[in-house]
Design brief:
The complex is a heterodimer of chains A (63) and B (826).
Chain A (H helix, E strand, L loop, with lengths): L3 H24 L8 H8 L7 H12 L1
Chain B lengths: L35 E5 L2 E5 L2 H12 L4 H5 L20 H7 E3 L5 E8 L4 H13 L3 E6 L5 E6 L6 H10 L3 E4 L4 H40 L3 H22 L1 H12 L6 H21 L6 H25 L2 H7 L4 E6 L2 E6 L8 E4 L8 E6 L2 E4 L1 H4 L5 E3 L4 E2 L4 E2 L4 E7 L5 H13 L4 H31 L1 H14 L3 H20 L2 E3 L4 H7 L2 E4 L1 H5 L5 E7 L5 H12 L20 E6 L3 E6 L2 E6 L1 H5 L17 E5 L2 E9 L6 H10 L3 E5 L4 H11 L3 E3 L4 H13 L4 E5 L5 H6 L2 E5 L4 H6 L2 E3 L5 H36 L5 H20 L11 H4 L3
Parallel strand pairs in B: 18-25, 18-27, 25-26, 27-28, 28-29
Antiparallel strand pairs in B: 1-2, 3-4, 4-6, 4-7, 5-6, 8-9, 8-10, 10-16, 11-14, 11-16, 12-13, 12-15, 17-29, 19-24, 20-21, 21-22, 22-23, 23-24
The chains are: A mainly alpha (63), B alpha+beta (826).
Chain lengths: 63, 826
Amino acid sequence: MSILLILIPLSLVLLVIGIAAFFWAVRNDQFEDLESPAWKILLDDDTRPNPELSAMDEDRKRK
Amino acid sequence: MQSGPDNHEPGATGTRYSPGDPCFHCGEPLPAGPPLFAAVSGVEQPMCCRGCRAVAQLISDASLEEFYRFRDQPGPRPEELEDSWTVYDREQLRATFVVSLPGGLDEASILVEGLRCAACSWLIERTLLGLSGVHSAEINPSTGRGLVRFDPALTSPAGIFASIAWLGYRPHSAGSGDWEKAQRRERHQALRRLAVAGLGMMQVMTFAVSLYAGAFQGMDPWIREFLRLVSLLVATPVAFYAGAPFFKGALRDLRSRRPGMDVPVSLAIAVAYLASVWNSLSGSGEVYFDSVTMFVFFLSLGRYLEMMARHRAGDTADALARTVPQTALRVSGEVTERIGVNELRIGDIVLVRPGDSFPCDGIVIQGNSGVDESLISGESTLRTRGVQDPVLGGSNNVTDPLRVQVSAVGQNTVIAGITRLLERAQAERPQLARLANTVAAWFVVTVLVVAGLVAAFWFLRAPELALPITLSVLVITCPCALSLATPTVLTAATSHLARNGVLVTRSHSVEVMAQCNRVIFDKTGTLTHGLPRIGQVHTRPGLDREQALSLAAALEHESAHPIASAFENIVIKHPASDVRIITGRGVQGQVNGDTLRIGHPDFIAELHPGQTLPEWMPGDEGIVLGDASGPMASFAMHDKARPEASQLIQALRAIGMEIELATGDRPSAADSLARELGITQVHANMTPEAKLELLRLRQQQGDRVMMVGDGINDAPVLAGADVSVALGSGAALAQSTADSILLADNLWPLLLAMNTVRRTMTIIRQNLAWAISYNLAALPLAAAGLVQPWMAALGMSASSLLVVLNALRISRVPSQPNGQARESAE
């Protein structure tokens, strides 16, 4: 059973890593918005917005 | 302000749609006349106005058509915004919400009003990314808060704000948001504590199971010692990091001599932990690390849920309602310019237009107007403010323009002080939870006394059993199920309601709404669409239709009343001056030097008393335009009942609600709508004061009254009702005084809300009954020494879990209209 002397400290190391990862996630706002990422994967596609938009923006600024 | 993409009018497809069909973009009925079209995904779709067409074309040109596939509600109507956004580029205002990032980019914190679903935030993000100079844009669809990073050389906050506004949403600068940051810190800390407690608990449990198994089957003493020491190591941060709030709370309770639940909780944690440390170091007796960690974890979970409920209460709608405007119109000599509020200095003169909020405290130097200070004083009737009268920042100027000399700004204003108070109040628990807490406080004292007696008794009889039995008593009687019973149900209820389009802005409204037995509906904009169309126009001889419409439009231009929207697209030849809006009556103003009035026939008749109805007028239908010599024109207004209104009213009746209709409109219009919808109690010609009186009368008769309204007319009535509901599309003023807001432009959520709040109260009662009977039953068992500490911790946790799971049943109240009535009349 002396293997426990290695395995249990090892599990504690994993525990610390797990808690550190969670703290990192909290600090980086991973829990701030739990809703929209699920949508974004549906909505985001490869089409880039039309350059006309920027032209319109310029247009607007001139006015 | 901006010009949309070039017009194009497809003729061939024009026959497929008729007036009244919904606009493809915003869902409003199409107006009379040839419809407008925009090509979306290659198909010509009908549009109700140029604004919608422009937005649809913008969305389509930018290949963002998916917005239409994924949105779950029609988009907002792009409003003609009179504000120019360039004020947000002014240095002083810009500094409040834009920070420079290393690398030459700027980051703006914004708050977007009018988001309805994730597709909205996606549309805004994509549109902003299409602007030159915008590097990233993120909008949180549930709070409306967002961060935009941009290159200050290429674009500016004004450009970003104008783009958002042009899509039909309303952008605000979010400021530094100290309160927001504090909430975020609190949330993050609670999450970290929860993680430490949860993961620590799992670890300690595995050791505890081994120890129990070892106790039955035999185990090497060194392994036993080793497992105990490892448990000690893991349980220490759980007790002192995750458990810290309980100790702090207990200290605070003791200092204020008001024992709360934290006292026995900390006592149990501390006693169990210290005894276990002593036993594991000395290698004798029992350890209770499993009980300690489980206890801390479940309590933290309860606290976390409660905190989320509290934070939600301070969400966007509420924050918006109590913010002072961020910009002001400063008058210096001949020049009136829009500046940021933080540029205002004491002594400056600002112009506050009707419908706007005062940006600062000040003294009126010109004008005379009705001011709504209900946000500050709770007094709902309009106060008249003239020269030399003080006005308060954040209160609303309702009837006439005022010039105000600034006397206090920023943190020195009255509203800032109130906001501080509100924030403190919000840090407290909702009212219902407070009741449970009072009960809990009594309970705590009892528990402490009983635990002391039990400890003394067992110490005399069997000293070695005294500690575990006292621990069991402390843990099993922990009133956490009692304290969880209410807040979890309220959280579940408010989030279920929010998901289904009902935003609860006051914590007491759930409780009060459940007791309501009478609903008073407003007519225009509530039971009807509130977007009246002009029907037949009758004019005085010598005046043609176009002239009459133009004059009416000039007056209505200044009004925010739903009727005014019917005149929006009419070209105004001569603008009106000295415009006064008389709430519930009409509008008066000067056009070309003549004093004109538009509104109720009575209101017009006041200008020329004693005259009879001229022959050309068809009756007293609709609204009338008149001058000193008599009526000039009458406009028949058509406003259709909402399609769901009649079914909704039947359903509300089925759950035992009395329905009443109170409107400022004419009896004939009110009666015909009431007949259509099957409402028997109808009050027409009601001024806001009369509505309030009706409300008070009903309340005196013992009814709890819910008021459903929309528009400036209703603000005082909404504030006077036991519980008030404003429709999301209504005027912002009504929203700010309402207890809850229907976000959808549709009445069904009202029924859902009634069913949900009633069910909420049932579940709260079940929870409280369970928690109390559990504690009462468990106490004698524990005191008799029949319960081990780990069983006590498990029992306490199971009881809390049951309460939480019971709370989650709320989300099963169906959100579909059909069959709702029966479901929760239980």
